[in-house]
Structure formats: structure tokens, C-alpha cells
Amino acid sequence: MAGFPAAHCRVVASEISGNDAYVLLDTGPPGGTYLYGGACHRENGRWFQGGSSNAPGWSPTGDDPDVGALSFWGDAPAGVETVRVYLDGAVVEAPVRNGIYFLVKWRVPVPIEWPNIVAICEHGQWKPESTEGLFWRWRRQLK
Prior knowledge:
four-stranded antiparallel β-sheet, flat, seven-stranded antiparallel β-sheet, 143 residues
């Protein structure tokens, strides 16, 4: 969080796996959201930042440059409680907290196919998701 004004830098999600971590920050102004994620690693009890970006992605971790952390995150429309994500041939669920979904998969190679949202749970009801679904219509409205 070094380098960001305290008023514009809040941790919204994080996950730790051994000596690796991924931290998702909101660096937007109060009342606005601007997500910024970063991979971190621990050495001798201290945390250091690795790769970071304003988009989800893949970052190498540990000593093996062929495996790393895959992050998948973003804003969710109001009322969406969970998203189902197709990832590596399986469907996994990521809860929505404070309007943000967040998922990290550790020690994986660079993905051939990027994760995608296949369903959303909105107000307790699961709905299939497509490029014309509620989530994507909402995302286009932001642009």
C-alpha cells in the first residue's frame, strides 16, 4: 500500500498460501471504486510486492517460473451474492463481498483458457450467465 494516499487505498480482499499472497485494493476516491491487485511474497517474515495490475491476471510465485497465482476478480452488480466461474475444466464459486468477487488459484501454469463467469446468484436465485447476461450488460454500462 506504500505510495497510495491512505484515504484512497483500502484492502477489499486478500488470500495467503504459504509464503505467497494476493491482495486486492480499492484505490478509488471515496464513493468510487478502482480495483488494483498485487501478488506478494514473504521472506524472513516480511512481505514484499511482486507483480501488480489494475486487471486480474497470472503472476509467477515461488522458485518455479512455470507456475504462479491466477487471480480473477471484479465488481459485481448490486444483489449478486456469488458467481460461478469456469476455471481449468471445473466450476468453482466465488462469493461477492462488498460488491466484489475474488478468486485466486495457486501454483498453476499460465492458463490456456481464461476463467469466465458462467452463472450468478442474485437475490438467492441462480441464473446462467452469458455475454448477453445481466453481469455483462452491467459491465458495458460502466464503460
